[in-house]
User: Fold High-affinity branched-chain amino acid transport system permease protein LivH from Cupriavidus numazuensis.
Amino acid sequence: MFENISIQALSGLSSGMVLFLVASGMTLIFGALRVANFAHGSFFMIGAYLSYSITQLIGTNNFGFVASLLLVPLVLALLGAGVEFFLLRRIATRAHQYQLILTYALTLIFADMVKMIWGRDNQMVPRPKILDGAVEIFGTPFPTYYLMLIAVGTLVACALHILLARTRFGKILRASVADAEMVGALGINVPRLHTSVFALGAWLAGLGGVLAAPIGSISLGIDSSIIIECFAVVIIGGVGSVTGALIGAILIGVMKAIGILFAPKLAIAFIFIALCGVLIFRPQGLFGGANA
Assistant:
């Protein structure tokens, strides 16, 4: 029984790391720009579909996977920068309701675009051959690809921490969150900073989409499911906290996996039980107020 729980927890940890990649981008955008970006799940979905197209074009081999891993996040970063520059920046001074309506409208537009380009059928991206094996843990085979997801999530978490806590960019970003007008008065181009943060968030969502594509089928609607879990992560971890996003994503991933093992019909409910508990007892989130 212990072996089954451990393997299931590791599986939940791997899915939690994918969720972290997407949610960390969302919490960065929300923390820096104060924009609840409903279109963030669409970036994830587009990333998964682009990964499918690239692997079909180049080949379902190791090179195709690496190419999609490098190219797709960059494409999503450019798309995110365009959304912020041409759309969100124009209504930055208006009430938050305008931003909510705009980003929600983008989800509908992107969903129709995906439907036009890739159709309604579910698509599959095979795992790269180098990661298609398994290792034995407690005598049970565990997919090598899942171990790679855990490793990538850990590396990205460390890189984001260094970026936000140890670099000039991170210091300027934290200062702009505290007082954007003062930062602008010191000669910093705050709008350009916001575009960079939005592009980084979209890059992370695209990376999550590429890594999630070989786990299951790619279909219309995966944007809605991931955005709900991302909001849960942001609320549980605390707005603007990458550390909170990491802990929140791991909690959700492991709880969901363990829930499937013991009570499959209530697995999703465990996430919202945890969410309600945080809202009641610690509404600012587990790491609310943290900058990294």
Summary: Residues 12-220 form one domain. The first strand starts at residue 134 and ends at 137. The two ends are 37 Å apart (CA to CA). The mean pLDDT is 92.
